[in-house]
Specification:
Arc Repressor Mutant, subunit A, Four Helix Bundle (Hemerythrin (Met), subunit A), three-stranded antiparallel beta sheet
């Protein structure tokens, strides 16, 4: 593997996460020289990482400076609406295609999620929430659905973490996960699609409470 690409990808992932979580807020102006000093790499991987971020519409490069675009409230709501439109379909595909090893992975994740809910550890709850969804997407049998939903879910990371800081919401989400898991175990395609869509809609309702 080309070393500069490997470094570029590492910088890209670090910066992407920082922008998604608003550690680097929208509107921030950056330079290749400053980023090179911050991450301890030459300007070549920085330039490549910035190009990747531009493809994700997270930054805009004007040559001498790089402006962080971040996510507006409307961007986030649009991501949620797209998720609502396709989440149920991915759950239906998973109900049809998931095998025993996938079910076992989900059961283990649910045990950990229940534990962290009892501990009221919002960071770990959010992490387990992500793992639950990523595992379903991984086993849905569609690379396109899986990749698209994984990206959508990841870009909403900051808002999901805020949401699960509320214990009642974390408990509600956990109960919805259990129902989805049961539908997957039963390979009930119609029910899995219904529950997946409802779960995404409930996530939107919780998000609206946060952004309004």
């Amino acid at each position: 593997m080309d070393k500069s690409f490997s470094l570029a990808h590492q910088v890209f992932k670090i910066m992407e996460q920082a922008i998604i979580t608003e550690e680097i807020p929208g509107g921030t102006e950056l330079t290749e020289l400053g980023l090179s000093a911050k991450y301890g790499v030459s300007r070549t991987p920085i330039r490549e990482a910035v190009a990747m971020l531009e493809q994700e519409d997270l930054v805009e490069s004007t040559g001498k400076k790089i402006v962080v675009l971040g996510f507006s409230q409307q961007d986030i709501l649009d991501l949620v609406d797209i998720r609502i439109a396709i989440e149920g379909r991915a759950m239906a595909l998973a109900a049809r295609n998931i095998r025993e090893e996938g079910i076992k992975e989900l059961e283990d994740i649910m045990k950990m999620q229940d534990f962290y809910i009892k501990e009221n550890d919002s960071e770990k709850i959010s992490s387990m929430d992500s793992e639950f969804h990523y595992t379903i997407y991984k086993h849905c049998g569609s690379r396109i659905y899986g990749k698209t939903l994984t990206e959508l879910h990841r870009k909403m990371a900051r808002y999901r973490e805020i949401s699960v800081k509320s214990r009642p919401r974390a408990i509600q989400s956990g109960e919805e996960h259990k129902k989805i898991l049961q539908a997957l175990k039963s390979h009930d395609v119609a029910l899995a699609e219904q529950l997946g869509t409802e779960h995404a809609k409930h996530a939107k309702s919780r998000l609206l409470e946060e952004v309004q």
